[in-house]
Every structure is written in structure tokens, then in C-alpha cells.
# Entry
Amino acid sequence: MHFKSASLDQRTHSAQFGVPLESSNAILLRKTKLSETSLIITWLTETEGRLKTVAKGARRPKSKFAGVLDLFHRCEIQFARSRTSELHGLHEAVLIEPYEQIRFDYVRLELAAYFTELVDLVTEAEHPCPEIYDLLGRALAHLAAQPASQRALLHFESELAQMLGIRHERLTPAVAIGRAYHRLPHSRRDLVAKLA
# Structure
């Protein structure tokens, strides 16, 4: 499903608040409940890095976000930047790529979740990292087309360590990342065993 870019490519203004709206391509990393009707959505964006937005009314059955805000979805988002908080207002999200095939295989799903957890761990809030955004997009596209494999996991870690500037000739990329960020996602050990 592809979007018509004209509606989101231009910067617009919120009629209600007079706040400039910004747009970016983004991959959904995490969603958490904020209230009975709203969600906090964590994105890795192409232009702004890791970004948190509030999707008001997203948990309502007839929400404009219905079917769009799901893990790993790549979207074009439009948001109003908050001046007082790290939580920005999500105005619109248009689905570009759902990577649907990932959801039909549990191990693929686990590996995709590991990738997003790892990206969440190593990226800074609102610090642009377009190369990591591109890496994650390529990894999800691979998982949508191919079975999960240990090779894919190790390749992702290797590329990520290279981009972070922490590759070490005497350490595996996973160990280098774990040392630099003081941990790895807990799911890695079981995932490596499944993929062996």
C-alpha cells in the first residue's frame, strides 16, 4: 500500500494550535498505553532519529490510526513538535510498508523484534541516524522475503557496530555493542539458540 505524498510532503500548520507540522518516514519500534484511548508510539525516523509521539484516540475502534500503528510498520508520519516534552503530537500516519510476511512466522517475528530492540538501545532521542534507519528497513524487508537466520542476525549486528564506530578486531560485534551500551536485549540468547 503506497501513499500519495502531496499531503505530507508540504509543511502545514495545525489549525487548532498553530504549531508547525513536520513529516518524516518512520519505522514503528514500540507502542505503549498512555490512557484508555491513547498510545505512546516510539519511531525510528529517517530525518529525526528516535522520536516519541502521542497518538490521541488511537485505541478507539474508529480511530484514524486503526490498522496503521503496528510494530515494524514503515509509515510517513506528520507530527507537531512539543516545546516542553519529549512526547510530540502525532497528527497523521500513512502506511507505506507493513512487512506483512514477518507476522506469519514466529521466529521471523522474534528476530524483527530483536532488531528493533537493538536499534532502540543504541540510538539517541532525536539524533538523526539515517544510515541506521536504512539498515533497519533493509533488515525488515529481508525478513519479509526470507526465513529468519543466524546469518541475518550476525550481519545486522556487524553492520550496526560498524555504523556506531565500535567494531573491534578482537571482539564480535555483539560483544562490542554489549560493552558499549552495557547490555544487549535479553531475547538474544534464546534467539541465537533457535537459529543455530
Observations:
- DSSP finds six helices and six strands in the chain.
